[in-house]
Amino acid sequence: MLLGALLTGSLPPHENPLQLSVGTGGEGGVYFDYGFGLASAVLARPDETEIVAIPTAASVENNRLVATGSVDAAFTLADVAALAVAGEPPFDAPLPVTAIARLYDNHTHLVVRADAPHTEIADLEGGTVSLGASGSGTEMMAERLLALAGLDEITKAERTAGAAGVVPIRLPIGESARALEEGRVDAFFWSGGLPTRAVADLAARTPIRLVDLAEFVPPLVAEYGEFFTEMPVPAGTYEDVAAVRTIGVPSLLVVNGSMPDEVAGDLTRLLFESRSDLVGVHPVALHLNPRSAIATLPVPLHPGAAAYYRSMKYAYDTSGA
Fold first, then answer.
1. How far is Cα 252 from Cα 270, in angstroms, rounded to an integer?
2. Measuring CA to CA, which residue among 113, 106, 140, 131 is closest to residue 249?
3. Whole-prediction pTM
4. Angle CA(258)–CA(262)–CA(267) in degrees, nearest 5?
5. Is the CB of residue 137 less than 8 Å from the CB of residue 97?
6. 7-22: per-residue pLDDT in tens?
7. Could you give the CA distance from residue 73 to residue 85 in angstroms, rounded to a whole number?
8. How far is it, in rounded angstroms, from Cα 192 to Cα 250?
């Protein structure tokens, strides 16, 4: 993190080479792969740009890091960024977060062992469940889903005393996968693009299933807004894992609103110029498209990014894009 702060502090607003730090997510997740892929892609332009990818807890932490200037840019779920902009919990005040692009849709995973009896969230009662890393969008989604399913978070002692609910632990994606494989948790939540490397690696070693979550899309929309859609996880996405329906949430690349327009425009250009390299890192980059990238509301599009899209002759409506 200190490295990220140093890079941010040394950022020249209008001079080359451009130096940027990007907050990603945990190893094994798509934000991690996307961020380090972007950093690798721009190595071909050493006189123009340097990008340093920094592992983080992901969405909630990333919005805070961008707002404080600890990183220059970061990946986040759109519903989390909307809360940051509005200053709603878990954020204490509105944060100066703006968007560079809408990237792709994340898929919410609830992963259990193939021989587990759990077929819906309510079946997790009495179990131990990883809710994702503290400060992640996965954690926020897991907490919302448990609440909608009527499951309280309890301690091991409370469970022993007969209390109903689930015992939560908060682990990043790689550790969640290992904990399920080793029998230390009964299930774990994850929100990421398809396929997520840590889940794919787990499926190759240990038979797993995904729990269908489509029933929760309408109550999520009713309570939290129009960020959530029903999306499929096709059969074969993970080895020997059947198709399910789940919850989709857009992912954004965001920056501080105070970033100079020229820098934000350069970052947007580099993102799209690196698309072919990013596809080689992860197939979710196939969804990177200027026409959909501007659909970031209620998170405002940074003026520098908007100028790039206008220069590419894609429609941009400043009142509603």
1. 15
2. 106
3. 0.88
4. 90
5. no
6. 343 344 445 577 899 9
7. 15
8. 10
